[in-house]
């Protein structure tokens, strides 16, 4: 079992199977609807990251943005967020909620029990 330990570990556990591990190529992203939440799932250097798919500025879909290293660039106003912790680069007090991920038996799971603030 592989856990993404780059996000908050004190969340309640409510693991939801998101996709098969091999469905998302390295360096790619996909938009998902999990438990009624718009989620952006990304794969970077073999690790899966999950975060809200809504920019906190105007709720633009981050899935339509570009991935630059560990930064997702919002397609509406070029705001940059770190996919590891959700922080906005220009004002770290602004964050996109991030979700814990794990890979088990070839499936990627996202913990929808709570988001890191």
Task: Write a brief caption for the model.
By secondary structure, this protein is an all-beta fold. It has strands spanning 2-3, 15-20, 29-34, 37-44, 47-52, 66-68, 71-73, 80-82, 87-88, 91-95, 98-99, 101-104, 107-111.
Explain what the structure shows:
Helix content is 0%, strand content 47%. The chain has no helices and 13 strands. It is mainly β and 117 residues long. It has strands at 2-3, 15-20, 29-34, 37-44, 47-52, 66-68, 71-73, 80-82, 87-88, 91-95, 98-99, 101-104, 107-111. The strands form four sheets. Strands 1-12-13-2 form a four-stranded antiparallel β-sheet, with no helix packed on it. The model is unreliable at 5-10 (pLDDT under 50). Its cofactor is [2Fe-2S] cluster. Residues 15-110 form the Rieske domain. GO terms for molecular function: 2 iron, 2 sulfur cluster binding; dioxygenase activity; metal ion binding.
Please tag this protein with its features.
mainly beta; Rieske Iron-sulfur Protein; 4-stranded antiparallel beta sheet; 47% strand; iron-sulfur; Rieske_2Fe-2S; 3-phenylpropionate/trans-cinnamate dioxygenase ferredoxin subunit
Strand/helix succession: EEEEEEEEEEEEE
What does the largest sheet look like? 4 strands, antiparallel
Helix content: under 10%
Structural class category: mainly beta
SS elements, strand count:
13
Low-confidence parts lasting 5 or more residues at pLDDT below 50? 5-10
CATH superfamily: Rieske [2Fe-2S] iron-sulphur domain
The CATH topology is: Rieske Iron-sulfur Protein
CATH class: Mainly Beta
GO molecular function: 2 iron, 2 sulfur cluster binding; dioxygenase activity; metal ion binding
Organism: Methanolobus profundi
Pfam families: Rieske
Keywords: 2Fe-2S, Dioxygenase, Iron, Iron-sulfur, Metal-binding, Oxidoreductase
